[in-house]
Write a structure and sequence with these properties.
There is one protein chain. The protein has 286 residues and is of the alpha/beta class. The protein has eleven helices and 13 strands. Strand 4 and strand 5 form a beta hairpin. It has a six-stranded mixed sheet with strand order 4-5-6-8-10-13, sandwiched between helices. The chain has a four-stranded mixed sheet with strand order 7-9-11-12. 44% of the residues lie in helices and 19% in strands.
Length: 286
C-alpha cells in the first residue's frame, strides 16, 4: 500500500482502484467496469459542500487518476442520496476573513481547472441538487447526465456572491451568453428537463427508486466510450478544448497537431486491420 497524503491507495477485488480518504469526507475512485473510474463524493452531513478538507481530498483523487493509463473514463457521482454537490461550504466560509475567502475561491477555481484538464472524458452524474460550486464542478466535466428531478443553478447572487469557480466562463460556453446571464443574474434553479432543453446536460432521465438514475445512464455512456481508441479519444478532447478558444484557422492547426500524434499509434493500425478483416477492433491505448 502506497501513501498519498491523506489517501490510502490500494487494489481491491476485481482490480477496482480505490482511494479511501478519511475524516470529514470520503472520495472513492473505483468502477465496476475495467477502465471506468468513479469519484464518489460522500460528505452527507454537509450535502457534499466544498469545504477545505473535502477540496483537498478531491485534489488527491484527481492526482491519482491523472497519470493512470488504465483509466479511460471518469464518472463523478454522489453517495449522498438527493444531492450531487450543494456548492461551497458557507458555514466554513463565514469564518474566513476577506484574504482567506479570496485564497480559497482561487483554490476552488484551480480544482475545477484540474477536473477540466483530466486527459480522459469525464461525466457528471447529477441525481440531486447541484448548486453553486456543485454546478461549477459539473460544468468542468465533459459530459453531464441529470435526473429529471435534479435541481441545478448558479445561485450565488442570492447569497450576495457571484460564481467564482468558473461558472461565469463555462456556463456561457455551454448554453450561450443570454441564457447564462439570465441564470446567473436571477440565481434561478432549474430541473433536469429544463437543463436538457437548454443544452446544459447531455441527457436527462426519470429518477428511479434507488435515486441513482443519472448515475446508471452515465455509466451506460461511459461504457459506450470505453471500447473506443483511448489515444484518439484523448486527442479528440484536447483538440476540442483547445480549438474552441481560438479562431477556426488556429483550431484547424490544433486539430492537425492532435491528429499527427495519433498517426503512429498501434491503435490506429489496429483500427485499420479490424476494418480490413471485418472484426471488432481491440484497442490497448498505445
Amino acid at each position: 500500500m502506497m501513501r498519498l497524503g491523506r489517501a490510502a491507495l490500494r487494489w481491491g477485488r476485481g482490480g477496482i482502484h480505490t482511494a479511501v480518504l478519511r475524516p470529514g469526507a470520503e472520495v472513492q475512485v473505483g468502477g465496476e467496469s475495467g477502465g471506468i473510474a468513479e469519484i464518489l463524493m460522500n460528505r452527507p452531513h454537509a450535502r457534499n459542500s466544498l469545504g477545505k478538507v473535502f477540496v483537498d481530498e478531491l485534489f488527491s483523487a484527481l492526482e491519482q487518476l491523472r497519470f493512470d493509463e488504465k483509466v479511460r473514463v471518469v464518472v463523478f457521482k454522489s453517495k449522498v442520496k438527493g444531492v450531487f454537490c450543494a456548492g461551497a461550504d458557507l458555514k466554513e466560509r463565514e469564518k474566513m476573513d476577506d484574504a482567506e475567502v479570496g485564497h480559497f475561491v482561487k483554490r476552488l477555481r484551480n480544482l475545477m481547472d484540474e477536473v477540466a484538464a483530466l486527459p480522459v472524458p469525464t461525466i457528471a452524474a447529477i441525481d440531486g441538487y447541484a448548486l453553486g460550486g456543485g454546478l461549477e464542478l459539473a460544468l468542468a466535466c465533459d459530459l453531464r447526465v441529470a435526473a429529471s428531478s435534479a435541481k441545478m443553478g448558479l445561485i450565488e447572487t442570492t447569497r450576495g456572491l457571484l460564481p467564482g469557480a468558473g461558472g461565469t466562463q463555462r456556463l456561457p460556453r455551454c448554453v450561450g451568453v443570454g441564457l447564462a446571464k439570465e441564470l446567473i443574474f436571477t440565481g434561478r434553479q432549474i430541473d433536469g428537463q429544463e437543463a436538457f432543453s437548454m443544452g446544459l446536460v447531455n441527457h436527462t432521465v426519470p429518477q428511479n427508486e434507488e435515486g441513482d438514475a443519472a448515475y446508471q445512464r452515465a455509466l451506460t455512456l461511459a461504457k459506450e466510450i470505453l471500447p473506443r481508441a483511448p489515444i484518439a479519444v484523448k486527442m479528440g478532447k484536447l483538440a476540442i478544448n483547445r480549438g474552441i478558444e481560438v479562431d477556426i484557422a488556429s483550431g484547424m492547426a490544433i486539430e492537425g497537431m492532435c491528429y499527427a500524434q495519433n498517426i503512429p499509434t498501434r491503435d490506429r493500425q489496429e483500427g485499420m486491420a479490424a476494418f480490413r478483416e471485418k472484426r471488432p477492433p481491440h484497442f490497448i491505448g498505445k
